Amino acid sequence: MLANDSILVTPGSGATVATHLVSGKEYPVHIEARHSGHLIGSEPLYCYNIPSQVHVNTANTVHWDLFNAHASLIVRVVSIIQIPNVTTGVTGIVFDWLLERSSAVGTGGTVITAWEPDENDTDIDAAVTCRSKPSGGATQSTDLRNYSLSSEETNAATIMVAALGGLELIPPALQMINGGKGITLRQNKGLRCVQVTQSAAGNTGWLITIMVE
User: Fold this and answer.
1) In a domain, 26, yes or no
2) 173, 84 in Cβ contact below 8 A?
3) Considering the domain boundaries, does residue 152 fall inside one?
4) pLDDT tens sequence across 58-109
5) How many domains does the chain have?
6) In-domain check, residue 1
7) Mapping DSSP to helix (H, G, I), strand (E, B) and coil, where does residue 156 land?
8) In terms of residue numbers, what domain contains 126?
9) pLDDT, tens only, 110-133
10) Of 56, 65, 117, 187, which has the fewest Cβ atoms less than 10 A away?
11) DSSP secondary-structure letter at 11?
């Protein structure tokens, strides 16, 4: 069915409607779909695991970028989890971070290969890329959010964040579990994560999950 369509049901005739028998009565079957048309649970998802990497003693260092250079595909970023390292002993400090949109693909650095939660899904298109510590490109566009994390592995808050699996950077209202559609990246749009603080004290990793339409 398309938006605003309806099915006319006349007892003994009319259209066939899927039903399920419960206690002797047939009930219509309801299947939920997202705004994109995907049935919930059927969407192809892709994950980028950026292993824990050292902070950099240079202010405003780009730690990773994600970019959609495809002419027609739409990328929805549904989760970005930042995972502080609590296994490496350091004399840590509180770091300021910035999540931003970007208007150019990153260059250099290390290309991160996506993995599929369902290995039967088609591999992600080569025009969608992610890299850690790009040395060029990844041009800053719109600031999305500022936040802070301590890199001290003995800090109680840092330990708690790590124990919970990391800090989710997608606002709750945008999370798909709450009916949101993530952060949308259309053609030639991307994201980047910037270490604002100038210090090499500590290590951080990320897990980024996207859906491609």
Assistant:
1) no
2) no
3) yes
4) 999 999 999 999 999 999 999 999 999 998 888 889 999 999 999 999 999 9
5) 1
6) no
7) helix
8) 43-212
9) 999 999 999 999 999 999 999 999
10) 117
11) T
What is the C-alpha end-to-end distance of the chain, expressed in Å? 19
**Secondary structure letter of residue 114 according to DSSP:** P
Which residue is listed with tokens 């938006």? 3
Q: What is the DSSP letter of 173?
A: G
Residue by residue, DSSP assigns 69-86 as --SS--EEEEEEEEEE--
Query: pTM here?
Result: 0.82
Dist. CA 153–CA 195, nearest whole Å: 18
Structure tokens at 120: 């039967």
Under DSSP, the state recorded for 160 is H
- The residues with which 167 forms a beta bridge, in sequence order, are 82
Asked if residue 2 is part of any domain, the answer here is no
How far is the C-alpha of 185 from the C-alpha of 74, rounded, in Å?
A: 6
Contact partners, residue 194, CB within 8 Å, separation at least 6 = 60, 61, 62, 63, 97, 98, 99, 100, 140
- What span, in angstroms and rounded, lies between the C-alpha atoms of 94 and 113? 30
* Residues 158 and 84: beta-carbon distance below 8 Å: yes
Distance CA 203, CA 53 (A): 5
Classify 157 as helix, strand or coil: helix
